[in-house]
Amino acid sequence: MEKKFTHSPFTFLRYSKMQHMKKINTRAKHSIRYIMVLVFSLFLSGCGFSLPKKQESDTLKISLIAAKDINLNEKGEASPLSIAIYQLKVVDNFENSDFFSIADSTNTALKEEYSRIYEGILKPGETRKVSVSPDKEAVALGITAAYREIDKADWSEIIPLEEKDKKKSWWRKIKIMPGDTVVFSVHFNTLAISIDEAD
């Protein structure tokens, strides 16, 4: 006679409990993995593992030196002088433009070739150190001074940022020098501008 085996209620309960525990273990494993990934991500961010920052432009230290007799008025007295520094992508148009076209940005073609990166007012006899960061595309700096007798003055000067052979700019070679080292000096004389490069 064939015997039939039937599962008791206790067997079914044990089986259900085992299945339930498997589900719990699976969920626990997923939770642990998620927590580990989260903790690892926080650890990386805390340790400074981030995307590299965009390289900043090289900074130039410039000494602005005003003569004691700059910008003489009707009485022959020295007066403050408004000056500006421009970064130039092209030199020709800047050199061939008049002062007011540059200062007022009325020359449309010129506006696309230059941008002002510094402006200030120098007192007679004042010396001021400034820092400017020309873009990588800049091939020269343009210096202007708003002399009272603008028609009689040599009111602009060009400082090339590239050697003639297009190799590394002379001023970039000075990056190894201390941070407060002046790369060149701009002299604002009675009616003219002159440039002294660093040795």
Automatic annotation (TrEMBL):
A Pfam family recorded for this sequence: T6SS-SciN
InterPro entries: T6SS_SciN (IPR017734), Type_VI_SciN-like_sf (IPR038706)
Keywords (A to Z) from UniProt: Lipoprotein
Protein name: Type VI secretion system lipoprotein TssJ
Gene name for this UniProt entry: tssJ
